[in-house]
Amino acid sequence: EDAAHAFPAAWRQDTQSPWQRCGEGTSAVSCFSFYANKTITTGEGGMATTEDKDLADRIRLLSLHGLSADAWDRFGARASWDYRIIAPGYKYNLTDIAAAIGIHQLARAEEMRRKREDRIRQYMEVLADVEEIELPPDDENRIHSWHLFLIKLRLDRLTIDRNAFSEELRRRGIGHSVHWRPLHCHPYYAETFAWREEHLPVASAVWPRILTLPLFPSMTDEEHAIVVEALREICQEHRRGG
């Protein structure tokens, strides 16, 4: 399961059902990313979770050269220096320093998620009356990880397209991005598989409309207000028929 952006998201069937975390028994193995802009970070790297002990042992084995014991075990105070390579492996282990950072990040994961969620609630409240912006849906049976906060522009109500809107944000000093370019828009996939817009109609329709707004746990009220003001200004200046 590709759960790169999912930590610490959760869902339930209905309000009477228990919450279930992403990666909690939903697949044989779930893979999370701890890259710098994720909900918790080790700088680079990630984590694989599984309830299958044999699979977990196999992942550990392959992640460090196929060694019978990892580097930490070999250099511990009471460990033997002896080890064996028992399978072809890779150099995929997380460094001890990165892992130490991750452990502390993990302890603060829910705190940081709540801070992101608080900013999301503010965005949703203060942008609800901006007709040129479509906000993401809310669902009481979902706990979003809020790795990113995306909006969709209602281009039929604006005189500019997404790229021009992005340039207006950049001109005002608002850091932002666009996530993510559809596969058929990348040369490799277009050339190798001959994928075209008609093969991915939903992605093709959404792609020209999306923008990713600033979102991070330490975001201040002032920073948030600056972003919102810029969005309102741009929408007002480029409102169709306005």
Assign the structural class, choosing from mainly alpha, mainly beta, alpha/beta, alpha+beta, or little secondary structure: alpha+beta
**Number of H- or I-type helical stretches:** 8
Strand content: 5-15%
Taking the sheet with the most strands, its summary is: 3 strands, antiparallel
What is the overall silhouette? Answer: elongated
Q: Work out the radius of gyration.
A: 22 Å
> How do the strands line up in the largest sheet?
2-1-6
Number of DSSP E strands? 8
Describe this structure in words.
There is one protein chain. With 242 residues, the chain is an alpha+beta fold. The protein has two domains: 10-107, Type I PLP-dependent aspartate aminotransferase-like (Major domain) (Aspartate Aminotransferase, domain 2); 109-237, Aspartate Aminotransferase, domain 1. It has eight helices and eight strands; from the N terminus they run ββββααααβββαααβα. The strands form three sheets. It has a three-stranded antiparallel β-sheet, with no helix packed on it. A three-stranded antiparallel β-sheet has the order 5-7-8, with no helix packed on it. The protein has a two-stranded antiparallel sheet with strand order 3-4. The longest helix has 18 residues, at 109-126. It is elongated, with a radius of gyration of 22 Å.
